[in-house]
Amino acid sequence: MSSSLSSSSLEQQTSCDDTGAAIVSSNRVVLSEAIHLQQHLHEPHGGIVPTLALESHAAQLPGVVRAALQQANLAATDLDAIAVTRGPGIHACLSVGMNAAKTLAAALNKPLIGVNHMVVEGHALMARMTTTKEGEAAFPFLCLLVSGGHTLLLVVHDVNHYTQLGTTLDDAVGEAYDKVARLLGIAWLPGRGGGAGAALEQLARTGDASRFSLPIPMRHASRAASMDFSFAGLKTAVARMVPALAEQEDDRWRADMAAAFEHTVIAHLTDKLRRAFRWTQQHSIPITSLVVSGGVASNEAIRAELGRLAGEHHVPLVCPPAKLCTDNGIMIAWAGMERLQRGFIDDYSIDIRTRWPLEALYQEWEKHIA
């Protein structure tokens, strides 16, 4: 690549359903993004069908990568590295992206970077690319990852260096949104970033949260000190109330229940974040920001309340733009760039990891700095 341009990283994202590729530069500029959506394949089945996702990835990935290169007006030889989602995710889907990335990197003689699309390497680092103010999302920061598959509370010290404070004991928050939306009979929203959870959020804006009283999880004295999360009981509480409500002629109850559910979720999240702030103060960790990422971070009500909480602790709330909160190629390309800059390069022999525990990332960090 010409010395007049910043280094750039191409990413291929095939962890689950949508097929994405993006190119970013080291100075935080998105040079291109291409994506092929699969919602029309999975919505009739009520969830992701792995075989359909695999077939679509295999058919669409070459064209998506070519489109990303064309949008950036770059040749593949101009790239400095190839980043790919290594895990976690659906085995067959991850394999499509990994095999393509290995072939491309080897053919071009470029570094290959396998990225964990969750946690530090994916969603959390996205905030570092999109922040506009000096010092925001600088290490260390407190990170709340809220998505369909994960609910995690972390201190992010550096790339691959973190302290996990809490996780979900059962359902992830996004999973709870989707399940409650189905209980309420709410249809998916069309387009990118839609789905049942987003539809519930939209309906909740018109509801009266005070009409129904739902239990705020883990407020019992025996569990209040924990920084873990639990949403299964809340979902069950909604499920028990729905049959009787569904017999009413007035459909207004759906919006009110959606609002009550969302209000309770926010109360639960803020409970645990307040404890996390206290923990960082007790351990003298100079937190720079509260980063909230993952698909549920696009929820406006959650953002508003967590923004107030961050203000109480004199740090900014940093969230990626809503369209970048769900899994996307840009976040993997940027994570690849951060890893490239720190020398985290993988062999062409790496394999996918459908499960990728956080402990493994930390062990890699320790080995790298040794």
Automatic annotation (TrEMBL):
PANTHER family: TRNA N6-ADENOSINE THREONYLCARBAMOYLTRANSFERASE, TRNA N6-ADENOSINE THREONYLCARBAMOYLTRANSFERASE, MITOCHONDRIAL
Cofactor note: Binds 1 divalent metal cation per subunit.
Organism: Syncephalis pseudoplumigaleata
Keyword Acyltransferase carried by entry: yes
Record's protein name: N(6)-L-threonylcarbamoyladenine synthase
Family: Belongs to the KAE1 / TsaD family.
Swiss-Prot/TrEMBL keywords: Acyltransferase, Metal-binding, Mitochondrion, Transferase, tRNA processing
An example Gene Ontology biological process: tRNA threonylcarbamoyladenosine modification
Taxonomy, superkingdom: Eukaryota
Cofactor(s) needed: a divalent metal cation
Residue runs in coiled coils: none
GO molecular function: metal ion binding; tRNA N(6)-L-threonylcarbamoyladenine synthase activity
Main subcellular location of this protein, as a coarse class: mitochondrion
EC number: 2.3.1.234
A UniProt-annotated Pfam family: TsaD
GO cellular component: mitochondrion
Gcp-like domain sequence ranges: 30-334
Function: Required for the formation of a threonylcarbamoyl group on adenosine at position 37 (t(6)A37) in mitochondrial tRNAs that read codons beginning with adenine. Probably involved in the transfer of the threonylcarbamoyl moiety of threonylcarbamoyl-AMP (TC-AMP) to the N6 group of A37. Involved in mitochondrial genome maintenance.
Reaction(s) catalysed (UniProt annotation): L-threonylcarbamoyladenylate + adenosine(37) in tRNA = N(6)-L-threonylcarbamoyladenosine(37) in tRNA + AMP + H(+)
Root EC class: transferase
Cellular localisation: Mitochondrion
Quaternary state and interactors: Homodimer.
